[in-house]
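[Meeting: bench + compute handoff]

Bench side (C.D.) handed over the final construct sequence. Compute side (W.E.) agreed to return the predicted structure before the next meeting so the bench team could plan truncations. Sequence as handed over:
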Amino acid sequence: MRRHLDGRVETFDCEAVDVGEDRAVVSFRLPARIGEFPRGTTTLGFFWQNRAYNLYRFLSPEGELLGHRLDVVAEVSIEPDRIEYLDLVVDVLVSPTGDVQVEDEDEAKRAAEKGLLQPPHVEAIENALGTILRDPRRIFREADRLLPG
């Protein structure tokens, strides 16, 4: 369950790949095209209880890597049948070739000005971006180790 700063809540029906006490991997297929990702794209979601980001890996229906997205988050809760987190607006897209694009920093700044993002959230965004941008491929390798087989 993704909670937004404005109170909206989104839920996604996912299949558990591996769920532990402090981390989880889930899979779901996109029912419709979302941005550059076509209908039928498999999304692997990687969630960590004590990290300020989630990772999504997008694979074509044929299994080809389409890209990664890291969402900056807070208040991550992992239960055997449910994952919940607060979306802190900022996302990082990483193409299969390694090109990196940070999205929605302006939106986060406006949210902070409106008081929707509290100072600890702003600090969490800065720290998460520092970690992600330093070496996103390290995070991808860590995620690979969570996959069975």
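W.E. noted at the follow-up: The first strand starts at residue 2 and ends at 3. C.D. will use this when planning the next construct.
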